[in-house]
Amino acid sequence: MITLRGVEKSYEVGGSRTFVLRNIDTEVKEGEFLTIMGPSGAGKTTLLNIVAMFDGNWQGEYYLYDQAVHELNTKKRNALNKQYIGFVFQQYHLLDDLTVAENLEIPLSYRDVKRAERQGTVADVLDRFQIVAKKDLYPSQLSGGQQQLVAVARAIVADPKLILADEPTGSLHSSQGEMIMETLKELNDQGATIIQVTHNEKWAAYGDRIINLFDGWIMKHA
Fold first, then answer.
1. How are beta strands 193-197 and 33-37 bridged, if at all?
2. What digits encode the pLDDT tens for the residues 45-56?
3. Strands 59-64 and 2-13, sheet pairing
4. What is the distance between the alpha carbons of residues 221 and 218, in angstroms, rounded to a whole number?
5. What is the DSSP letter of 100?
6. Domain at 31-56+84-221, CATH from 1.10.3720.10, 3.40.50.300, 3.90.1150.10, 3.20.20.70
């Protein structure tokens, strides 16, 4: 499903080049649940952003379903992202002026889902995440943990083929964290491919495989 070859990311700083990712070679099979671990500054979020196609300024080759992402312009990358990817941001990225239900509708509107069907799907997801009572509230009226639940719900609402999760349980207490991980595992069992970044050994173990990053390099495949 995903092939990365020689992917590198660097910045020019004061006349010298600083690398964030070095020579990343890996493949992710369809239906796999991959965990990326490593210390702060290892390049985990950067790698996830490249896979999500949020970042087009890097070197190397990236294939998604045999499409050469590295050859696509921004518009085509964005279209591919909306077609295949659900992303759970570390900082939620909910839209402040939209209610919880309206935030959840956004990925469905990108996929041209009819309005009545959108509302039914949103209702199902609100129920699944036990946040029906919050549907008319705005993000500012929610706790950090509730915002995190909504962010995860939004990432999966359109049934994406690929779910990318950057510390998806970061703001949650352990029972909520477990609920999120069980939901991701369930989606994985139903065929979704998942790549998560986490520091938590317990959540990491939900994955089929772990990649460890250190100073931008892949250290070992587990």
1. parallel
2. 999 999 999 999
3. antiparallel
4. 8
5. H
6. 3.40.50.300
